[in-house]
Amino acid sequence: MASALELSTLGHRIRHHRVARGYTLDELGALVGVAGSQLSLIENGKREPKLSLLQAIAHATGTDVTDLLSPEPPNRRAALELDLEQAQNSPVFRRLGIPAVRVTKATSDETIESILGLHRELQRREREAIATPEEARRANTELRLRMRERGNYLPEIEHLAEKQLKAAGHTGGALTHRSVSVMASQLGFELIYVDDLPHSARSVTDLENGRIYLPPASIPGGHGLRSMALQAMAHRLLGHTPPTDYADFLQQRLEINYFAACCLMPETASVAFLAQAKKDRNLAVEDFRDAFGVTHEAAAMRMTNLLTEHLGTRLHFLRVDGAGAINRVYENDDLPLPMDVTGSVEGQIVCRRFAARAAFAEQNRTVEHYQYTDTPAGTFWCSSQTGRTGDGEFSITVGVPFDDARWFRGRETHKRAVSTCPDESCCRRPDASLTDRWNGKAWPSARVHMQMFSPLPRGAFPGVDDGEVYAFLDRHAQE
Prior knowledge:
Blueprint lengths: L3 H17 L4 H8 L3 H8 L7 H10 L4 H4 L7 H13 L2 H4 L14 H20 L4 H17 L5 H13 L9 H10 L3 E4 L10 E3 L4 E4 L10 H13 L8 H19 L2 H13 L5 H8 L3 H16 L4 E6 L4 E6 L23 H4 L10 E7 L2 E12 L2 E10 L14 E3 L5 H4 L4 H7 L27 H12 L2
Parallel strand pairs: 1-3, 6-9
Antiparallel strand pairs: 2-3, 4-5, 4-8, 6-7, 7-8
Helix pairs in contact: 2-3, 6-8, 9-13, 10-13, 11-12, 12-13, 14-16, 15-16
InterPro entries: Cro/C1-type_HTH, IrrE_HExxH, Lambda_DNA-bd_dom_sf, TransReg_Diox_bact_type
Protein name: Transcriptional regulator
Keywords: DNA-binding
């Protein structure tokens, strides 16, 4: 059965040849043995003709069936009408609930072009506005909860990464830039380092010419070139297509980050290292980090993929900024975390008593801060490391329930805190005596966080300036 577009195109081609021969509908109908009204239905794409009738029409109009069945519109006017018909049948337009424009002979080409321009803008805005802030938070929360159910473990990506590493000849130790280049080459890509990468993109992949463009040096924040290259390759390996909504975008981002982590810290070698460290009661993020030549954050996050699945240890991970706001989080050990009414945790202020914030008070920031914290959900042992980027301070924390602290270095710490959050009296309500002393006598000048006024990034790839990326690719394609 022919599609609606095929029937419409066929109808336009029949009309084109009928008019070219000077026939009316009734005149051509008389020649082929059907009523003119039946031919009208066929020309308007409402009815599919039998092959015998097509043959008769072709003979009467001096053409052949192959020409009538061509998928190409017979002229510019037909092309415009077909484009408009498709646009008005799209889900985006139909959701508006307004009637479609009926095209007649009196409708000028310019009018159709103008209407098509409005449809294109409607489609563009639909693609760009892929989420409101509330939808984005909900999508992020749903993704976090799904990963919690899976122990933050994706076996299919683990297996894919080990397969690619083996094919590239990587056998152990820290993954080298050369091995990453070999992996890219096996996928048909060349890694090119440039100093004019679009500011809105961490990397750009030229699918036409088989190039992955990367910055000449690691960007601030601990994202290495190896990781960026691996993430770009992951899109191809995982068969990603342009995201359809914000949830799809977040899922893809999680998967490419996961693939990069699997390559930099392969499952087999990582589990062997961690299992031995647990046997020695000497698990430590810093040792895991140094063994594979990655950042502290990458090592800490990778432990969330492996400790529960392979070593039976529940845990939590936090990245917290200097103001105490949670930037990134994972937990499957029931650590009580602040959350908004949607269940979102990111952006919430973590308890001041937690190790993630207490670590900022340490004088020696080069060593990890170890701490036990009593909470309404039980006692947790945590290890926190602080750092700084151009955006300010941050801390990375890995923690486990009290009983599992025996496997970790730093369990002997005497530092202990008590958190009763979400009770307001824990750290969110001022001390009563200080309130009596200063209430009504203080007028602080608030620091305005500009992100409060920033719209959610738009576009099929949120936050990426398409025009800048296309200009970049066109510039480098000439080289």
